[in-house]
Amino acid sequence: MNEWLYVLLFMIVGALIPVGAILGGFLLGPKKPNPLKQSTYECGIEAVGEAWVQFKAQYYIFALVFLVFDVEAVFLFPWAVKLGALGLYAALEGVLFIAILVVGLLYAWRKGMLEWA
Amino acid sequence: MTTEQIIFLIVAGATLAAGLLVVTSRNLIHAALWLVATLFGVAILYTLLNAGFIAVVQVVVYIGAIAILFIFAVMLTRKDMRDSGPQHNKTWWLGALVSLLTFGGLFAVLGQWSGLAKTGAELPAGFDSVAALGEALTSANGYVLPFEVASVLLLAAMVGAVYLAFNKK
Amino acid sequence: MNFWTDPLKVAADWLQGVFTSWGMNEVFAHVLVAFLGVLLLITILMVIDIFLVWIERKVVARFQDRIGPNRLGPFGLIQPFADIIKLIIKEDTTPAGADKVVYNLAPILSMMSVLIIWSVVPIAPVILSVNLNVGVLFLIAAGAIGTLSIIMAGWSSNNKFALIGAFRQVAMMVAFEVPMLAMLLIPTIFAGSMNMNDIIQAQGGLWYFVLSPLGALIFLVAIIAELGRAPFDLSEGESELVAGFNIEYSGMKFGMFYAGELLHAMTFGGIWGILFFGGYRFFGLEQVSPFLAIAIFLFKALLGYWVIMWVKYTMMRIRIDQMLVFNWVFLTPLSFALLMVTALMNALLQGAPVWLYAAGMFLSNVVVAWIALEVARSVSRKERQKVEGVAQVAEAHH
Q1: Domain extents for chain B?
Q2: Are B68 and C143 within 8 A, CB to CB?
Q3: How far apart are CA C130 and CA C352, in angstroms?
Q4: On chain A, which terminus has fewer CB atoms closer than 10 Å, C or N?
Q5: Of the partner residues B57, B137, B158, the one whose CB lies closest to the CB of residue A79
Q6: Mean pLDDT to the nearest integer, B13-17
């Protein structure tokens, strides 16, 4: 647990530096708020409509496929660490694992799920 | 109170507070961000248990994939992203009663458990949890069958996602 | 051990002695010494970051056949300091209707996610911040926080273009993490450990880019996409979405995003060097002195950064749908195929002498790359014939 304390220290100091920089900017900069300055940018014209867009469903599908592959990769890390010490059998198990999921990717591709966009 | 217990209480308290804010936030995206804080608290709890690998996996899978999926889902299904729904429905009193009973039951059961006074066991020196996990996942006497079944499960999840999410087209 | 062979431990022990002689609690002194060490490393990184701005501008100028900043100071070295002063005295505006807390938190999280990567990077055989045994996966965890900060920035700006830019950037970063994860598994297989220092130490005989050149190449492509730099910089395509999720940010908040991106690029250059090019090793030179090892590592990190810049200033931007299709249809299957081949070859050539192992791995990489290129070529030939067929038919009708 001791080593993770250093990671926490890194996070604290890593958060303090940008906080310090932004605070410096806040203190040193002029403060003259003006409704025109604070209006949102839309290529120089007045903003039209609310700030929402029809979110494409395709983004969600990509995130789903990524989730499946992320979990798969996480399973593969302990396998990869021990691969050198174990033999061909362990390598084949891992190859089977990957192959099943590549089949899944091919299925998603054939169904046209991976097209944009 | 050892320092370990103090740190655990602080982190657990923060995680619970973030969890409470997830369900009581009016703004859905804020709720999703409080969920990220809760998941991060759980990751810190894993490091307290000397499970460094699981802690990093928690951040990578939960915060890096599942929280992003939640945020995308919120943005996909809400017409206005600043939408905030009502916080109660008609049977809120029933939910409160059930949760109080559950809490009382858990309190009664855990109050008699001796494990609360124990501290975490020390791992043997040079114990590499990732290597041990790797061996367990690939040895025939270990968990190789669940390992392969997990990949089939993930395949089923992907096929289900294709069917559900794509059928709208 | 003296200062020149083990500077970190000697300095830490000396400081600890000083603090306890002032009457401080032992544990508290230890934490304070660690805090000072971390502060020193991060300060040095921020100073390097400032000079990265100068390097970037000079290099892009040379690629575009001009000189770049040369007015402020010798060779324009004072230019980045002037940039910082300009950014810091700008007004701190928040767009109307923006979510204040999330809007201000996003640049902080973005910079923090880059700085914590350095906690697992070993810069010399004895200088390394945290010897995590899950160092390689920690990179992805830091990337996850970075991805989250981009969504936060895009959503909280109350601006359509920022939102679209953030979606695209996150979709792209998330997509290219899959080949990145697969390629991170390859040095793990070779070294038998996820610890960064172990991976460097295991590259004693051969650097890993000799054992897996295709792996190094795919990893390079994946990290360029993770950084959001050209040719994958569609979200901040200056001519399309102005600045993507960055639109409503100005002053030091924008500075944090921009400097964070440059530091991220150099960090990933260093990671590329560690995983595939031997890190701080250079045929035994690193044993001479830790400071020489730091210099070697810095040289490799800047070399990796230069390669990333070279790709940025040479190639055109790719469209978002082409980018994502390229990843899911070509790069992901290729990287998993390479992983499977590497695992099988590693198991088959287990007891072989070093030269046979290296030759076998290298050849298997070349074969996989050749097959992939042939498949890509035949697919693109068919596509081209389809398009040209239509064009020829159209011409015949004239």
Answers
A1: 1-83, 128-169
A2: no
A3: 34
A4: N
A5: B137
A6: 95
Q: How many CB pairs under 8 A join B and C?
A: 56
Peptide bond into C353 cis (omega under 30): no
C-beta atoms surrounding C117 within 10 Å = 23
Residue with tokens 């657990």: B12
Residue B57 pLDDT more than 90?
yes
Facing C185 at nearest CB: one of A40, A76, A88: A76
Report domain extents, chain A.
2-110
Helices first, then strands: H and E counts in chain B: 7, 0
pLDDT digits (tens, 9 = 90+) for B105-122: 998 888 887 766 666 667
Average pLDDT value for chain B: 83
Which chains border C (3 or more CB–CB pairs < 8 Å)?
A, B
User: Do the beta carbons of residue C257 and residue C107 sit within 8 Å?
Assistant: yes
Contact between B38 and B11 under an 8 Å Cβ cutoff? The reply is no
Q: In chain A, what residues touch B73 (CB-CB under 8 Å)?
A: 60
What distance in Å separates the CA atoms of residue B59 and residue C92, rounded to the nearest whole number?
32
CB C190 within 8 A of CB C208: yes
| Nearest alpha carbon to residue A116 among C326, B118, C170 | C326
What does C196-210 look like in DSSP terms, one character per residue? HHHHHHTTSSS-HHH
**Under 8 Å CB-to-CB from C135, ≥6 apart: which residues?**
C120, C194, C195, C196, C197
Fold of the CATH domain B1-83: Four Helix Bundle (Hemerythrin (Met), subunit A) (1.20.120)
- Does C153 lie at the interface with B, CB-CB under 8 angstroms? no
d(CA C198, CA C322) in angstroms, rounded, equals 38
State the nearest Cα–Cα gap between C173 and chain A, in angstroms. Answer: 10
Q: Which fold has domain A2-110?
A: Methane Monooxygenase Hydroxylase; Chain G, domain 1 (1.20.58)
Q: For residue B62, is pLDDT > 90?
A: yes
User: By C-alpha distance, which of C331, C167, C261, B32 is closest to A69?
Assistant: C331
Spell out the alpha helix ranges (H) of B25-66: 28-48, 52-57
- pLDDT tens-digit series, residues A56-90: 778 888 888 899 999 999 999 988 888 877 778 88
CA–CA distance, C55 with C49 (Å, rounded to integer): 10
Interface partners of chain A (CB pairs < 8 Å, 3 or more) are B, C
CA C42, chain centre distance (Å): 17
Tokens found for residue C10: 């000697």
Contacts with B71 from chain C: Cβ below 8 Å? 151, 155
pLDDT of A109 reads: 85
Token pair in block for residue C362: 């290298």
Q: How confident is the model at residue A116 (pLDDT cuts 50, 70, 90)?
A: low
User: Can you point out the beta strands (E) in B45-117?
Assistant: none
- 10-residue mean pLDDT profile of chain C (398 residues): values are 72 80 78 86 90 88 85 82 86 78 90 91 80 88 92 83 82 91 92 87 84 91 86 63 72 86 91 88 77 88 91 84 86 93 87 82 89 89 83 72
Q: For residue B12, what pLDDT is reported?
A: 93
Q: Does B134 touch chain A (CB under 8 A)?
A: yes
C343 → closest Cβ in A91, A102, A117: A91
Which residue in C213, C222, C168 sits closest to C331, CA to CA? C222
Q: Chain C closest CA to A16's CA: distance in Å?
A: 8
pLDDT higher than threshold 70 for residue B48 = yes
Picking from C275, C137, C132, the residue whose alpha carbon sits closest to that of residue C195 is C132
CA angle C372, C193, B66 (to 5 degrees): 70
Task: Identify the residue whose tokens are 């970075």.
Answer: C146
